[in-house]
Amino acid sequence: MSAEEYGGAEHPGAAGPVEAASHGGTSPFEGSRTRTLMARVAAHARRTPDALAVLDGDTALTYGQLALSAARLAGELRKRGVAEGTAVGLLLPHAARTVVAQLAVWWAGGHSVPLDPGYPRPRLSAMLSGASVALTVGDKGALEAAGIPGAEAFALPAGWEPASADAGPAVYEGPEHADDTLAYVMYTSGSTGRPKAVGLTRRGIAQLVTEPDYVTVTPRDRVLCHSPLAFDASAFETWVALANGAAVAVSTGGRGSLDGLARDAERLGATVGFLTTALFHQLADRRSPLFGLLRTVVVGGEPLSARHARTVLRAHPWLELVNGYGPTEATTFATAHRVTDADCDGPVPLGRPIAGAVAEVRGEDGTPLPPGGTGELWLGGPRLAVGYLGQPELTAERFPGAGEGRRYRTGDLVSAGPDGVLRFHGRADDQVKVRGYRIEPGEIEHALRRHPRIADAAVVVRRPAPDDARLTAFVVPGDGAPPPHAAELRDRLSAELPPHLVPNSWQPVDELPLTATGKVDRARLAARPPTASEESGEEQSAPEQGAPEALSPLQRVVADAWSRVLGAGVAAPDADFLALGGHSLLALAVVEDLREDLGVELSLNAFFAAPTVADQAVLVERALADEDAGATGESR
């Protein structure tokens, strides 16, 4: 994100960092960029109590209602022991009340630990334990499914209703200025097999979102909130709206399909949105109507394709397209660049530091490099995380220094031009980004090595197409043992790890290739051509996948949709989408193709509940029959 006018100072040369310049302009809030977000919401509630704050399609809250609802819920949380420093888990779906709960946790003095109901129970248990969560707020069913004891759970009533602003204004009693008190604990993948709990501060969130000069947000805007709660982009989506008097437009049905996201954005009247880079690319390829609805789109997570950016900008020349970069440890975004058509002549820049961030390009010895030199990006400034909870040695390693000189070593290789604009050149380690998620292959490899019939494992990213990243696991069977089948490995890892950490394909190998220095040669593994039998992890030949004549007409339509998206022919009724390298983003594309080809609406949950061509053909047939029955009923 960030263009020339976005606050980056001129690069001072080899001796110093690139820093974000001070913000200009006036504000109705004195010292606004250091004011707590709770105080800002309360101030908005006093000044404009009837202004829209949150909507989700079923519920709409004004700032007066939001503040009063959060204050009342904070009182309930205090009765259950929440105080300053208490970690509170949030196991809630996308809804207006989830925003109320986040604000209430802070208002009560605690900090939030966002949890994903789709994670397996062992993963949720590890997250709760690692963050020392004392109480988890959620829906009754989700709390029970996660196995959270009753004494540690607070189920929001099924008939929960927002407080009426008619009951009087909410009086905020708490610190007026943001400090280094924790706001969130966000989890990222860990190379040792243990996920890392990143502690983000109230100061860091407030400075990121308050009157940002790297993106346009006004009180008239509605910011689309569709990212999973456990993904740090969701914090940006929520608080960049509420910090600036805008409304949070919570998408409750847009994550099931690409077109559904556009429909939800239109239904909610969204004007500003964040998209992971992979999702942006998919939407750009399909000429999504979403870009005609939004005024501003922030993109982040992986390198932005210049081709896709140019396609969108030329179709929608009014669009403010912002390329955002930043690890969770730097509070979502550290740099930004407003993308123009001219930027698309080459790799799209990362931009300049924003919102108080400091960026330094350093060599292997840790010394700053002059403009043009490629080295590791070290980030600093007041928005850095406090570190990794419960992992002091790792914190010291990744966050060297103290005070204003404290830095975070990103592991990203960049260069800075004479104008201070940063450009990305890859990674200094094995960490990868897939569909916006940061993934440490070591965490997956650690889980695979615990299998009794696996001696060793390595995980790499393959790209069958420029915009399609897939995790591939290479497994070395134990002495004399046959390699486990792909389905067994997938089920095993799915019971331990979040979906984005489960590989898309599996290949048994006799041994892992090594570099001259004795490390696993991941480049050679990634370059190895896949075969049908290796992709499935089973000893079978391509003909067993079936022949075209083995498919019914409806199965052929499904298989053709799969083939287009997967980039490989699918010709068997029992072909499995996941076994062929499919993942959630590709599934969204198939759902869109089936909607366009047949006029049927399938949810993502239904798609993955019917993982074979034959199963999905049955699903499509039922959907068509339901539509015919509905049409017949209407005609009568």
UniProtKB/TrEMBL annotation:
Carrier domain ranges (all copies): 549-624
InterPro entries hit by this protein: AA_adenyl_dom, ACP-like_sf, AMP-bd_C, AMP-bd_C_sf, AMP-binding_CS, AMP-dep_synth/lig_dom, ANL_N_sf, PKS_PP-bd
GO biological process, one term: antibiotic biosynthetic process
One Pfam family of this chain: AMP-binding
GO molecular function: phosphopantetheine binding
GO cellular component terms given for this protein: cytoplasm
Keywords associated with the record: Phosphopantetheine, Phosphoprotein
Alphabetized SUPFAM superfamilies for the sequence: Acetyl-CoA synthetase-like, ACP-like
Keyword Phosphoprotein belongs to the record: yes
Lineage top rank: taxon: Bacteria
UniProt-annotated stretches for the region Disordered: 1-32, 524-550
Protein name from the UniProt record: Non-ribosomal peptide synthetase
Native species: Streptomyces boncukensis
